[in-house]
Amino acid sequence: MGWMIFTGDESPLEVITFAYGMEQGLGEFYSSAAEMIEDKNVVGLLRKLARIEENHKKKLLDLYMTLGETGKGREAFEAEIMSEMMEGGFTTEEFIEKNRPAMETTADTLSLAMMLETQALDLYLRYSQKAEDQESRSVLYRIAEDEKAHLAALGDMMEAIHNEE
User: Fold this and answer.
1) By Cβ atoms counted within 10 A, which residue in 15, 94, 138, 146 is the most buried?
2) How far out from the chain centre does Cα 141 lie?
3) How far apart are alpha carbons 82 and 135 in whole angstroms?
């Protein structure tokens, strides 16, 4: 990923808004891909991954509400979100076009999801180092920790698949 997103002077609320948009974009990708794939096991996994992204969005919304305007509801918050970029820095359409062949099995799909989570983890950690204020750094670290936990869960799922074989 050679693109730059954060300049380092973003507020914690801007960081959360950006992260929420990436989670939303990835969730939309998983949902869209589930409609295009024929293997029922892969479809089930993609739907599960979409639900996980919804959980990430809820955490980010809760964090936003604790730091920001508590009178702003989810709908008003989501109206500000740009979700055409998913985790990993790809647009949903670009990613489906380039990676559909890599989603033919559950193991392949999990590998793809792990790649995206690793890229997101790297992104948040790199930009936490650029953040100029401690609160933004803290928010980025918190989001990175969530990505690490998700990556570990995906690893557990991959291990379970390999144990079934």
Assistant:
1) 15
2) 14
3) 23
Nearest Cα neighbor of 130 from 23, 1, 5 is 5
- Structure tokens of 153? 């869960």
Q: DSSP letters of 32-83?
A: HHHHH---HHHHHHHHHHHHHHHHHHHHHHHHHHHHS-TT--HHHHHHT---
Domains and CATH numbers, the chain: 12-164 (1.20.1260.10)
**Cβ 46 vs Cβ 31: under 8 Å:** yes
What is the length of the chain? 165
- Does this model's pTM top 0.90? My answer is no
Contacting residues for 122 by C-beta, under 8 A, at least 6 apart: 1
Q: Could you tell me if residue 8 is left (phi over 0), alpha (psi between -120 and 50 degrees) or otherwise beta?
A: left
What token pair was written down for 152?
Answer: 């570990």
Judged on CB neighbours under 10 Å (0-12, 13-18, 19+), 66 is exposed
DSSP state letter for 27: H
pLDDT along the chain (165 residues), means of 10: 58 84 86 89 94 92 78 73 61 75 88 90 87 86 92 93 80
